[in-house]
């Protein structure tokens, strides 16, 4: 049975991956793991179907997934300690707000995906730059560097997420936390998951 923190949409998962693309990619037993930036692929309804990435050919994950393609991928979104000082209440217990996503997937290492994985990632992480960089700007170095990496596709089999973002707080407490929270990223996510509740006069 899901809790208030486990109520979310496909759009919330997509937003988390796009805003926080660095994830732990692990073998199913956790014996091998690396932090890698990933790009999501979505179906017509917006559901996550795949994750695209790359790693060094020498990364132990490369050999591990050749033996067993099953993987667990962990995304950590915004997170911060929330103090009674933020809540404006000395009788309020401190807590930690956060967003997390777990993805179970089967990994397919694909030579032909290496260059496209670089292009996809560059588009994703450079999207807010005034002059977005593209891998081809490496010039002759590109051909040398690309020899040492390989692209992979993670075909998603299951997901599970938790967004603990103040949904259980009283509106007045939520307003105080948002007014005093120094982490603007977390505050934005709290507003996303509490539409209308943080507005002055709200009592829902």
Question: What layout of secondary structure does this protein have?
Answer:
Layout: H1 10-19, E1 22-27, E2 33-37, E3 39-42, E4 48-56, H2 60-67, E5 70-82, H3 84-87, E6 95-110, H4 114-125, H5 141-146, E7 149-164, H6 171-180, H7 184-192
Antiparallel strand pairs: 1-2, 1-5, 3-4, 4-7, 5-6, 6-7
Explain the overall architecture.
With 204 residues, this protein is α+β, with helices and mostly antiparallel strands. The chain has seven helices and seven strands; from the N terminus they run αββββαβαβααβαα. Strands 2-1-5-6-7-4-3 form a seven-stranded antiparallel sheet. The mean pLDDT is 95.
Task: Write a brief caption for the model.
The protein has 204 residues and is α+β, with helices and mostly antiparallel strands. Helix content is 29%, strand content 34%. The protein is elongated and about 60 Å long.
- N to C succession of SSEs: HEEEEHEHEHHEHH
The low-pLDDT segments are none
The residue-averaged pLDDT reads 95
Strand order of the largest sheet: 2-1-5-6-7-4-3
What integer value in Å does the Rg equal? 20 Å
Secondary structure tally, helices: 7
Span between N and C termini?
23 Å
Helix content: 25-40%
The number of strands is 7
Q: Give the overall silhouette.
A: elongated
Category from helices, strands and their pairing: alpha+beta
How can the largest sheet be summarized?
A: 7 strands, antiparallel
The fraction of residues assigned to DSSP E strands is 25-35%
Which keywords apply here?
204 residues; single chain; seven-stranded antiparallel beta sheet; 7 helices; alpha+beta
């Amino acid at each position: 049975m899901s809790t208030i923190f486990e109520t979310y949409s496909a759009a919330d998962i997509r937003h988390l991956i796009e805003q926080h693309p660095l994830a732990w990619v692990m073998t199913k037993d956790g014996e091998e793991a690396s932090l890698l930036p990933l790009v999501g692929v979505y179906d017509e309804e917006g559901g996550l179907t795949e994750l695209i990435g790359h790693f060094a050919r020498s990364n132990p994950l490369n050999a591990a997934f050749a033996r067993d393609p099953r993987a667990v991928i962990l995304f950590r979104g915004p997170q911060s300690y929330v103090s009674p000082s933020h809540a404006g209440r000395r009788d309020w217990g401190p807590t930690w707000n956060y967003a997390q996503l777990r993805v179970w997937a089967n990994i397919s290492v694909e030579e032909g995906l290496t260059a496209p994985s670089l292009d996809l990632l560059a588009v994703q992480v450079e999207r807010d730059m005034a002059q977005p960089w593209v891998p081809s700007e490496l010039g002759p170095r590109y051909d040398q560097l690309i020899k040492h990496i390989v692209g992979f596709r993670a075909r998603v089999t299951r997901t599970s997420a938790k967004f603990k973002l103040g949904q259980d707080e009283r509106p007045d407490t939520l307003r105080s936390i948002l007014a005093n929270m120094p982490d603007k990223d977390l505050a934005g996510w709290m507003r996303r998951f509490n539409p209308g509740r943080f507005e002055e006069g709200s009592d829902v």
